[in-house]
Design a protein that fits this description.
6-stranded antiparallel β-sheet; 27% strand; 426 residues; Rossmann fold; alpha+beta
Length: 426
């Protein structure tokens, strides 16, 4: 069967590579894709908002499965439109509808959902410009650090963790006045949780779910978790402290109540569900939901699958995930992002990437790249991920940085400490 994967990141590269291995896979198309996805299929350039062009492509190319990778089209309700289109009655769509995607698209909706279904999370306060004084008073009368979250989508950059009280007040004003556009017209002020972050991933048909390998990602741009948040600078899977006891706690108190809550709210949900968690004094709490796989977590999670990913996806779409389990590889996988200098702020594009021919294609996942005139050029902030396996964490880290040293481009930047904080926990 022919597959269309929407998106251009390392996530879509990793998904496409795994899907191409399936015996059920026919032609694979990526829209828009990147220089790396060309190894596994064809890139097309159709804006998902141009629905007529998208439908025509699906029909002409006999697409049977559409996988929606990024959050924006999910929040915009693309899955609803494709699934309800009478002209596409044979199409299978992976991704929640607009109602389910609100778990990521609105922080305030997600917090209210967790509160209603008693899912452990940080205490919070919703602030709009009309009640700015309430937010300022809250900051004035509480101790930092202060966590400010844009309610809507902000490309992974809408969360600020601020130590200084006066700076927190100023940032709250700036956010409500449009720092992140419409995404921060409402801001959630959260209790700061001190602990270790990690992520759990489920594939669900809306009633049942299959648990995928867990991961830990590194969001801040600087080493030792300093500097502003990014879309993610690296990831590790598995997580050394995620033992059977913690897994049971997460499933019983977070994953299952979330699936049950969606059913009780009559919100259909077919697709990936990402739980961003923090471990505080032995208890896991939810920091955020994502309505899709993470990036760069996908680049360490998906390569560890022994199960056929396309089979799992079809089972999810068809409602057949009851009692399904996911087989995984042993060992450890580590991914490090090579970013453009200046990211997540201003950066230059169009820099030629050298040394790719020296790498094992299994260890490279492209994101902000394009092929132009026979050269692979940078086209985004996060350029690519080097993702390497190892028998243990230290070996995987060493393998990853050895491969990273084989490539270069003007002003390349990457963190040199990914995974090293976990070595003593492994």
């Amino acid at each position: 069967m022919n597959i269309l994967i929407l998106g251009s990141g390392g996530r879509e590269h990793a998904l496409g590579k795994a899907i191409k291995k399936s015996q059920k896979s026919g032609k694979v198309f990526f829209s828009p894709g990147n220089a790396g996805t060309l190894l596994y299929g064809s890139n097309i350039n159709i804006d998902y908002k141009d629905y007529d062009a998208l439908r025509l492509f699906i029909q002409k190319n006999e697409i049977r499965v559409v996988i929606i990778g990024p959050e924006a089209p999910l929040v915009d309700g693309l899955a609803d439109r494709l699934s309800s289109d009478a002209e596409l009655s044979h199409l299978k769509v992976l991704g929640p509808g607009g109602a389910g995607a609100r778990l990521e698209g609105s922080k305030s909706f997600a917090k209210a959902f967790m509160k209603k279904y008693k899912i452990p999370t940080a205490a919070f306060l919703e602030i709009e410009l009309s009640n700015l004084s309430e937010g300022l008073n809250y900051i004035e009368n509480s101790e930092g650090p202060y966590v400010l979250k844009a309610d809507g989508l902000a490309a992974g950059k809408g969360v600020l963790i601020i130590q200084d009280r006066n700076e927190a007040k100023e940032q709250l004003k700036e956010m409500l006045e449009g720092k992140f556009g419409a995404a921060s017209s409402k801001v959630v002020i959260e209790e700061f949780l001190d602990g270790v972050e990690f992520s759990v991933f489920a594939l669900t048909d809306g009633k049942n779910f299959a648990l995928l390998p867990e991961a830990k990602d590194y969001k801040r741009v600087g080493e030792n978790d300093t500097g502003p948040n990014t879309g993610g600078m690296g990831a590790v899977s598995p997580v050394p402290f995620f033992d059977e006891q913690l897994e049971k706690q997460v499933v019983d108190h977070i994953v299952q109540p979330t699936i049950d809550g969606l059913k009780k709210e009559h919100i259909p949900y077919t697709g990936f569900l990402f739980f961003g968690l923090i471990l505080c004094e032995g208890q896991a709490k939810v920091i955020e939901y994502n309505c899709r796989m993470g990036d760069p977590e996908t680049q360490v999670v998906i390569p560890r699958l022994r199960s056929d990913l396309l089979d799992l996806i079809i089972d999810a779409i068809d409602g057949n995930l009851l009692n399904k389990t996911v087989a995984t590889e042993g060992g450890v996988r580590v991914a490090v992002i090579a970013a453009s200098g200046g990211y997540p702020n201003d950066y230059q594009k169009g820099k030629e990437i050298f040394g790719l021919e020296k790498l094992n294609h299994d260890n490279v996942f492209h994101a902000g790249t394009q092929l132009l005139g026979g050269k692979t050029l940078t086209s985004g902030g996060r350029v690519l991920a080097i993702s390497c396996p190892g028998e243990n964490l230290e070996e995987a880290i060493n393998n990853c940085y050895r491969e990273m040293n084989k490539i270069c481009f003007d002003k390349i930047y990457y963190r040199k400490d990914i995974g090293k904080d976990l070595i003593d926990k492994a």
